[in-house]
Specification:
Number of strands: 6
Number of domains: 1
CATH class: Alpha Beta
CATH architecture: 3-Layer(aba) Sandwich
Largest sheet: 6 strands, mixed
Order of helices and strands: EHEHEHEHEEHH
Structural class: alpha/beta
Strand content: 15-25%
Number of helices: 6
Distance between the termini: 39 Å
Strand order of the largest sheet: 2-1-3-6-5-4
Radius of gyration: 16 Å
Shape: globular
Helix content: 25-40%
């Protein structure tokens, strides 16, 4: 017997990491906002921070502690240059890394940009019952990550499994005595 699940909106914060962009110039962040809202989810917060590891990690921790935020998606700072510290900031916060997220993102990217996909360090993880994803700073990469991975995994109706259905269990290890 097939059951139909109801859509459950997820509350998502969007963080753009850039030394040069303002909200008005933030094409990648706007791509995410537009797609998140089109999918029926809620933009719970949005900001831009400079490429500073401590500031990024502090913002991620603040959003993880906010009960009105379920997911954080950052864009920018995932490359190989000296100023690219978003991945390190995310990993400073993660309790568990979602290793396959980066792998699947690379597979999706390979179909679009070929071997240039090796330069991305997209990552995902969980902390305090909140999902965190770090995406590259290009609008195309944000489209690819959302359209090919996140729109499905953040939809309770997606089968055979999705991130939303395990929200209640993300912190179960912390409840044990």
């Amino acid at each position: 017997m097939t059951t139909t699940r109801e859509f459950i909106p997820v509350r998502i914060a969007v963080l753009t990491v850039s030394d040069t962009r303002s909200l008005d110039e933030d094409r990648s962040g706007q791509v995410l906002v537009d797609r998140i809202e089109a999918a029926g989810h809620v933009i719970a917060a949005r900001t831009i921070l400079r490429d500073e590891r401590t500031e990024i990690a502090d913002q991620l921790r603040a959003w993880v502690a906010d009960p009105d935020i379920d997911v954080v998606i950052s864009t920018g700072g995932t490359g190989l240059t000296g100023r690219d510290v978003t991945v390190e900031a995310h990993r400073d916060v993660y309790e568990k890394e979602i290793d396959a997220f980066g792998t699947v993102f690379t597979i999706v990217s390979m179909q679009k940009i070929g071997t240039s996909a090796v330069q991305s360090r997209a990552t995902g993880g969980v902390a305090g019952g909140t999902y965190l994803f770090a995406l590259p700073g290009s609008p195309g990469a944000c489209k690819d990550a959302w359209d090919e991975i996140l729109v499905k995994q953040l939809d309770y109706r997606h089968m055979p499994c999705n991130f939303v259905e395990i929200f209640p269990r993300l912190e179960e290890g912390q409840r044990r005595k």
